[in-house]
Amino acid sequence: MEEKKLLEATLGFLVRDGNVWLAKKTKKIGAGCWNGYGGGVEPIDKNLIESLKRELEEECGVQISEKATEKVAIIDFHNTLSSGEVFVCKVHIFLIREWEGIPKESDEMATPTKFKIDNLPISEMMPADKEWAPLVLSGKKIIAEYHYGPFQKELIRAGRIEIVKNFPEEISKEFKIH
Question: Residue 91 in contact with residue 77, Cβ under 8 Å?
């Protein structure tokens, strides 16, 4: 299995009427797990919302607008590679309440399925998700930190979650990938 070093990413959850759309990741981080839609911020992305829009179109074929997004979390995932090297991936998580299209399968995300927010397939999601996903899907905003071992299969220490009212101001709406 390939280890990917990703430093900044977006993750979006399509939420409506007490339900959330999840799909099974087919490759990379979280392969085989139910998850929302997203991925690494690319040099072509002007900002986080543009990254999120691109990822949703690629992974499930839906279109979103910035006004339909709500940032609900910033999570720093400390990932340990099999070499022992540790890197941090900052993931910006959004709820999306309006979109155009019906989520469909792609080569990265299989079996799009609507779940009740109060009945998530937690045992088939990434290990940290059982702690933070129910909070953000129920309307809380959080800043959190988790530490994963190689291939993000297990947590190597307890996570930390802080419920917040607002997020620290982003340094800039526009950014460059280093």
Answer: yes
Structural domain contains residue 166: no
Tokens 């409506």 found at: 16
Q: Which two tokens stand for residue 125?
A: 């999601």
Does residue 41 belong to any structural domain of this protein?
A: yes
Is residue 54 a part of any domain in this protein? yes
The model scores a pTM over 0.70? yes
Show the beta-strand stretches assigned E in the chain: 8-16, 19-25, 34-35, 37-40, 69-80, 86-96, 109-116, 141-148, 155-164
CATH code, 146: 3.90.79.10
Domain carrying residue 138: 8-161
The residues with which 20 forms a beta bridge, in sequence order, are: 15, 115
Q: How many domains does the chain have?
A: 1
Instruction: Output the pLDDT for position 168.
Output: 82
- Domain-embedded: residue 168: no
Each residue of 57-91: pLDDT tens digit?
999 999 999 999 999 999 999 999 989 999 999 99
Find the angle CA(15)-CA(4)-CA(47) to the nearest 5 degrees.
Answer: 50
> Contact, 11 vs 25, CB < 8 A?
no
Tell me the three state secondary structure of residue 153.
coil
CB of 8 closer than 8 Å to CB of 41: yes
